[in-house]
Amino acid sequence: MGQVHYDRGNQLYQAMLDQRMIYSCAYWKNAPDLDAAQQAKIELICRKLDIQPGMRILDIGCGWGGMAQYIAEHYGVEVVGLTVSKQQAELARERCRALPVDIRLQDYRDIRESFDRIFSVGMFEHVGQKNYRTYLETVRRCLKDTGRFLLHTIGSNQSQVRTEPWIETYIFPNSMLPSAKQITAAIEDLFILEDWHSFGPDYDKTLMAWFYNFNRHWPELKQIYDESFYRLWKYYLLSCAGGFRARKNQLWQILLSPTGIRGTYYAPR
After folding, report:
1. What is the reported pTM?
2. Cβ contact 46:52 at 8 Å
3. 179 lies in which domain range?
4. Three-state DSSP class for residue 50
5. Mean pLDDT by 10-residue block, N- to C-terminus, for the chain (269 residues)?
6. Please, where are the H alpha helices in 50-131?
7. 219 lies in a domain?
8. Which entry of 25, 46, 62, 240 is annotated as an active-site residue?
9. Position 225 in a domain
10. CATH classification at residue 130
């Protein structure tokens, strides 16, 4: 899946990301900086999901636990977070210590429990088109009939079966960007589509903020990484920013429900 990328070293991601270490597109509407934009993204997800105290939440692809930690602290809920990265799991458990958060080193396909809400942020890109239906069937199996599921993913303008060769080789092995057609085919007969929110240009700003942090902290990071890694990572961040700026890549938040939300759903923005 993506554990090779995420196990490159926690020092790298601590230097590059925001204070909560959220490694996905931020939401820059009214946000002055990266920390505020990532918090705005978490709050946006919570409003779309209508998270209430006492709920049990599943975070598929929980990363370093930043979202699980925030939601447990601010919304009075219990969170189960899944990751396949050992380094992520270790730091996430440390961050969420003393909170009702269970961080598991576990494949999403192995979970068979019931949840009020499920979200997945920046993980669907590692699933692969052959597994899209299995992924959505797993979510449906674990989600209560009255629940909601939010999928936050990078998207492609065309349906593909593999990713760009350089990204595949050097950055995200076995990754693939889904198209809208592939996603809607996978949700058919499983979910009601409640909302589809596109804000890809915000990923351009996010990636540039990450590059600024990475470049600023390079004097410390070069004690761990060599110059060839600097060139590799710089090209990765800046080329991806260019892809979103050119609208070659998209960023979608898709809200799904098993049987339909009662009444008219007015999606937060």
Report:
1. 0.95
2. no
3. 3-11+38-201+248-257
4. coil
5. 74 97 98 98 98 98 97 98 96 96 97 97 95 98 98 96 89 93 97 98 98 98 97 98 98 98 95
6. 66-75, 86-95
7. no
8. 240
9. no
10. 3.40.50.150
pLDDT value at position 1? 46
Tell me whether residue 55 is in a domain: yes
Cβ-proximal residues to 87 (8 Å cutoff; 6+ apart), any chain: 6, 7, 9, 10
Work out how many domains the chain is built from and give that number. 1
**Rg of the chain's alpha carbons, rounded to an integer?**
18
Question: Which pLDDT does position 69 carry in this prediction?
Answer: 98
25 noted as active-site residue: no
Residues with Cβ within 8 Å of residue 184, at least 6 apart in sequence: 193
Residue 263 domain-assigned? no
**Sign of the C-alpha dihedral, residues 25, 1, 127, 106?**
negative
Separation of alpha carbons 165 and 20, rounded Å: 31
pLDDT of 5: 86
- 13 by DSSP, 3-state: which? helix
Residue 169: CB partners within 8 Å, gap ≥ 6? none
Per 3-state DSSP, what percentage of the chain is helix, strand, and coil (rounded to 5)? 45, 20, 35
Exposure string (b/e) for 161-175, b if CB count within 10 Å is 16 or more? eebbeebeeebbeeb
pLDDT at 2: 52
Rounded Cα distance between 240 and 122, Å, is: 14
| Cα 237 from Cα 166, distance rounded (Å) | 13
Tokens of 263: 């009444």
Question: Which residues does residue 166 pair with via DSSP β-bridges, in sequence order?
Answer: none
